[in-house]
Amino acid sequence: MGSIYLIRHGQASFGADDYDVLSPTGIRQAEVLGDHLAHLGLSFDRCVSGTLRRQQHTATAALQRCVAAGLPAPELELDAGFNEFDAEAVIRGLLPAMLPSEPDALDILRNPKDNRAAFQRLFARIIQRWVSGEHDQPGHETWQGFVGGVQSGLERLLAQAEHKQNIAVFTSGGTITALLHLLTGVPAHKAFDLNWQIVNTSLSRLQFRGNEVTLASFNSRVHLELLKAPELITYR
User: Fold this and answer.
1) Tens digit of pLDDT for each residue in 143-171?
2) pLDDT of 62-110, one tens digit each?
3) Name one GO molecular function term (predicted).
4) What SS3 class is residue 46?
5) Choices 3.40.50.1240, 3.30.559.10, 3.40.640.10, 3.10.180.10: CATH for 7-14+21-85+141-174+184-232
6) Among the listed residues 221, 218, 225, the one whose alpha carbon sits nearest the alpha carbon of residue 202
7) End-to-end CA distance of the chain, in Å?
8) Is the pTM of this model over 0.90?
């Protein structure tokens, strides 16, 4: 069987004007991942990334460490099917109707770094409304639409995959959640309970034979844990 390694990007710039940039911690996480892959002697036949900068930067930082250790690294391919959903657009679309019951929401969203717990609670509530499909709006990306795009990305990957290949996919937490939903049948709201646990640069492995795909492991972060540096275990 072949293997697809789903790699969540390193820590992005939460609370900054531009979230889609790796933080210094995110860069370090990607480098540690690359060193770990090199130590395992795990080389990839293909490497694919979504088109977001934090995904591509994670890929290049990790693969550079692999190359420095003497492992081959194929050219990075880009596929927008592995992009994250547009969280800002989801918030803009669903928040107005929630303001009567969430009067502090705007203050929380303006200062998320100073209100991390409140932001997570609010964001989780917004996501639950989004995945329910009961609040879909014309012109806004729906959960089902997002899942369909992720499924198309997986189908393209499998269509070009060869027997027993190792394929790395540098992606995001929401995309991994959509794949969990598709492959295991777990309801979307339960899949997002797992989403909140996905660590930056963690590895989840899928096994495939032809178009048949199964989940083999989820959210491994041993490369970070071995360093005994708790500050490298991040979730956003």
Assistant:
1) 999 999 999 999 999 999 998 999 999 99
2) 999 999 999 998 999 999 999 999 999 999 999 999 999 999 999 898 8
3) phosphatase activity
4) strand
5) 3.40.50.1240
6) 221
7) 32
8) yes
